[in-house]
């Protein structure tokens, strides 16, 4: 199981980098190799556990 580092994002957030190969397999990378804008839902499921779910982009306005 790969281990990823939690990193500072801006002044008020943290983030985790997801492997592009995994994102590509899910169709989240365009033909130029860039990660597509994709809404996701991040849910804290229990202490120290988070779930990331891809959301259908047709369910959200373009300016999100």
Automatic annotation (TrEMBL):
Pfam families documented for this protein: DUF8053 (PF26227)
Positions of the DUF8053 domain: 3-56
InterPro entries reported in the protein's UniProt record: DUF8053
Domain of life, source organism: Archaea
The name this protein goes by in its record: DUF8053 domain-containing protein
Lineage, broadest ranks: Archaea, Methanobacteriati, Methanobacteriota, Stenosarchaea group, Halobacteria
């Amino acid at each position: 199981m790969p281990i990823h580092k939690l990193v500072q994002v801006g002044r008020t957030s943290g983030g985790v980098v997801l492997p592009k190969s995994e994102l590509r397999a899910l169709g989240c990378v365009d033909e130029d190799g860039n990660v597509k804008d994709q809404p996701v839902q991040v849910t804290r499921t229990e202490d120290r556990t988070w779930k990331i779910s891809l959301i259908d982009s047709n369910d959200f306005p373009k300016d999100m």
